[in-house]
Amino acid sequence: MRVQADRVSVTGPHGTLLSPTSLTVSGGELAIVHGEPGVGVTAFGLALAGRLKPATGTVTVDGGDPRKIVAIVDSPGVSEPDGALSLQVVVGEELELAKRPANKAAIASWLAEHDAAAFATTRFENVAAVTRTRLLTELAASREDVGVLVLDTPDRHTSDVDSWARLAREHAERGLAVIVLTATTPVSVLPEKPALCGALEQPDPVRCAPVETPAETTLEATVADDTDKTSGDQE
């Protein structure tokens, strides 16, 4: 799985929202992207997810339609849940989006499995920011065909950088391509050197999951083949 943005820019009614930006992230990798507070960094995330057409440049996603493969998490004004809804209602809506059972029993079971049953009837805006981001990310990752997660400015909710950075790494370790958009956290505080909105040359993403090289695959196949031959000879 890989998502590649090549010189992507976005314009709005009043001018440029995002200057040309390039980024490539593969499955098992984590990239942190930093932009100025405002709609520009979110516009980049929406372009990656196929939700916004770039003015210039292209977005390429392995496997087909980015709207199915790229899940954008908690995007302000787009996929951000209504804070007045209870957590159980938000979870139910997300489970339906993932085409999973979303009746009361299924919702209660999901919340219990994710250590959030105690907050079922709590207004979503009153659930701790760390918990909200964790649950929304888990729900997005559970959608069928999703191979790329874009966490949209989790730093707008909390100054606890490690909370969302650890979460992002965990999902990258599972093999997803993970991109975290940031805006309010100073670059000096970010856990990795970030890619920058408006830049074409970017630092390499952080590899979180091991890569099986062709050589390793060939070796495994050879060992298995030799084992089969030995077993056959013994028979």
UniProtKB/TrEMBL annotation:
Residues 226-235 have a biased composition (Basic and acidic residues). Residues 208-235 are annotated as: Disordered. The keyword NADP does not apply. It comes from the Bacteria. Keywords: ATP-binding, Nucleotide-binding. The keyword Isomerase does not apply. Residues 27-206 form the AAA+ ATPase domain. SMART domains: AAA. GO terms for molecular function: ATP binding. This is ABC transporter ATP-binding protein. It comes from Amycolatopsis coloradensis.
